[in-house]
Write a structure and sequence with these properties.
about 300 residues; Rossmann fold; Alpha-Beta Plaits; six-stranded mixed β-sheet; about 35% helix; alpha/beta
Length: about 300
């Protein structure tokens, strides 16, 4: 069942169309990745979900309630962190939690202790926040979000600035909250590799346009492949040889060469040797980073939504 439904959503800032008629659903109890390069429209969409920006066109439903027409009911069970988490660094983590608990008015000490346990801050909760690492601050911010027992937590680029240990701890926490606590998590990122490890499903957005939604297994199937551009001569003979023997590796042909799938550098070197042994001159080999759009097209075969 969907906890969040985005229907034909559009947004303009001035004359520029930032979000272009996007639609996707987030299911209960999953970690859902909102994936796209910087400037793709992720934060704008999140701000509309949280009621921080108006909706020009379309509809956002949270647990069946419209953000525009039933704002209080829609946002009642949602917590979010947009950009950097704000907290009082001269106070301890515990005092920050108690301050937010008092502001909500209906949070017990028992609940405060529960969220401290859930985010793994037991040992350091009485330390001042200024002594926390960025990863610990992110976990404290998530603990603050959890005080009201939300059904949906929304995090905008939460791994920015974290070291590998902090990223791993955050990833494990979010997966635990979704899979063991039943809290749905929507997390945005521009990091394809991180989304593969963290999420159950992802959607890809680029330049305000939603390219589609897919499960992580589909993403991983392509994520394990790399591409290499080979500059070759004579090109007609090379194309004939490639098409007859390794056509399934072809990504695309370009003027003077071909881009091929290879599992790693060793595999690319074997292709290189094979071409040379068949009389093909190799003028250069370049490892190519796939764009998010290319990853999606490779998965879907040209743009059909999966999952």
């Amino acid at each position: 069942m969907s906890i969040l439904e985005i229907k034909d959503l559009s947004k303009k800032l001035g004359s520029r169309e930032i979000i272009k008629n996007i639609s996707f659903n987030v299911e209960k109890g999953e970690v859902f990745g909102f994936l796209g390069p910087n400037g793709a429209g992720k934060t704008t969409t999140i701000k509309m979900i949280l009621g921080l920006l108006s909706i020009d066109k379309g509809e956002i439903l949270i647990d069946g309630n419209s953000v525009e027409k039933q704002f209080e009911q829609a946002l009642e069970n949602v917590a979010g962190i947009v950009e950097n988490p704000d907290m009082y660094t001269y106070m301890s983590g515990l005092k920050n939690l108690k301050l937010h608990a008092n502001a909500r008015g209906n949070v017990s000490n028992e609940r405060i202790n529960e969220v401290i346990e859930q985010v793994g801050l037991n040992v350091r909760i009485n330390d001042k926040v200024r002594k926390y690492s960025l990863g610990m601050k992110q976990r404290l911010a998530i603990a603050i979000c959890m005080l009201s027992k939300p059904k949906l937590i929304i995090l905008d680029e939460p791994t920015n600035g974290l070291d590998p240990v902090g990223i791993k701890e955050l990833r494990e926490l979010l997966k635990h909250l979704a899979h063991n606590e039943g809290i749905t998590v929507l997390v945005s990122s521009h990091l394809l590799s991180e989304m593969q490890l963290m999420c159950d499903r992802v959607c890809i957005i680029d330049n305000g346009t939603l390219l589609g939604t897919m499960d992580v297994k589909s993403l991983s199937d392509v994520g394990g492949k790399q591409t290499y551009a080979f500059r070759l001569s004579p090109m007609d003979k090379a194309a004939e040889l490639i098409n007859a023997n390794i056509a399934d590796r072809v990504v695309k042909y370009f003027d003077g060469g071909v881009e091929l799938f290879a599992t790693d550098e060793e595999d690319a070197a074997k292709i290189n040797s094979w071409l040379a042994s068949n009389g093909i001159l190799i003028y250069g080999v370049e490892h190519k980073e796939q764009t998010l759009e290319e990853v999606f097209i490779n998965i879907t075969g040209g743009g059909n939504v999966i999952g």
